[in-house]
Amino acid sequence: MRFGLCDTCVHQQIVRNTRGSVFSLCRRSREDPRYPRYPRVPVLECPGHEPRGDAPADGEAAAGGDGAG
């Protein structure tokens, strides 16, 4: 699943339900109401984006994984 900018963000948490659906939770939403809990994807712009240490460089596609961090 590709969630856009969220795939490279330290604030992303991947959430799976019992029916197999996958969602991208923005952990910033827990403390800042300006951020939606489950943003519409793909996210192309976000003022709160903070790249993860394992984030791909310069526009490379995210390489899967669970994205939790």
Please provide a written account of the structure.
With 69 residues, the protein is mainly β. Helix content is 0%, strand content 14%. The chain is built from no helices and two strands. It has a two-stranded antiparallel ribbon with strand order 1-2. Strand 1 (12-16) and strand 2 (22-26) form a beta hairpin.
Count helical runs. 0
Biggest sheet layout: 2 strands, antiparallel
| Beta strands, count | 2
Query: Approximately how much helix is present in the residues?
Result: under 10%
Class based on secondary structure composition and strand pairing:
mainly beta
- C-alpha end-to-end distance: 17 Å
Uncertain residue ranges: 59-69
Quaternary structure classification:
single chain
Strand order of the largest sheet: 1-2
Proportion of β residues?
Answer: 5-15%
Average pLDDT rating: 85
Summarize the structure.
With 69 residues, the chain is mostly beta strands. Helices cover 0% and strands 14% of the residues.
What keywords describe this structure?
2 strands, 0% helix, 14% strand, globular, disordered C terminus
Secondary-structure topology with pairs:
Elements: E1 12-16, E2 22-26
Antiparallel strand pairs: 1-2
